[in-house]
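Bug #77: duplicate submission created two jobs. Keeping one. Sequence:
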Amino acid sequence: MTTILLADNHTLFRAGMVKLIESIGGFNVVGEVETAEAAMEFVTEYTPDILLIEISIPNLFGFEALRRIKRLQLGTRVVALTQCIDQPMPLQALRAGFDGYLGKNVSSEEFAKALYKIRFGKRYISESIARDLAQYAYGDVVDNPFQQLSVRELQVLLMVLGCHSPTSIGQALHLSPKTVNSYRYRIFDKLQIHGDVALTKMAIQYKVIELGLSGERAREMELHALSAKGPLAGLAKPAISAVTGRLQDDAGM
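Kept job's structure:
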């Protein structure tokens, strides 16, 4: 029996996935967690065969969980099961070493096929995401500027967008605040922008953060920004609030 750990911060989604996985046969969900830290602790103690994790899981995100778990060399295969289906996330995840990348829009039939392939040591990418990656390889789509970032730079970027301060980012990633700021300025140089407000706007434009899809999610992020502390929070609030206001206008609120 192949053991699976589910790491996702949405309780209802996890409940549905448990039923789906156990209906496939040959797989058993041995744990459910809501944060990256909890996922790392569970894997260290129980070593499940497969970890299914949401890339945007709170606090450390899936990238840092992957890095630390792979460093332990326990044999757990780490698979992204995520809402982040637009570039640069899939490409960066594969560069980082994920054993699979599945969008949450995948069919139950394809999900079962993916589990069986991953179970036997193969890497699997959702068919729709694989087609998108192929288009990028052949230059059939407009380049995404975030593709040029390293995996570590993308980690720092996501935490900046989450209104974390340099100190809290450093503590989470085991970096000094000075190093975190060095990453920030390197990101600005690569993207040819100046400041966190411009960074937030570009992230929205290229769907690195999915504010354009959900007014509810935008308001959630605005509340997060308003309650956050530190210099980055103050810079991110105006851009997030502006986007929230635009979504409300579009919805006639």
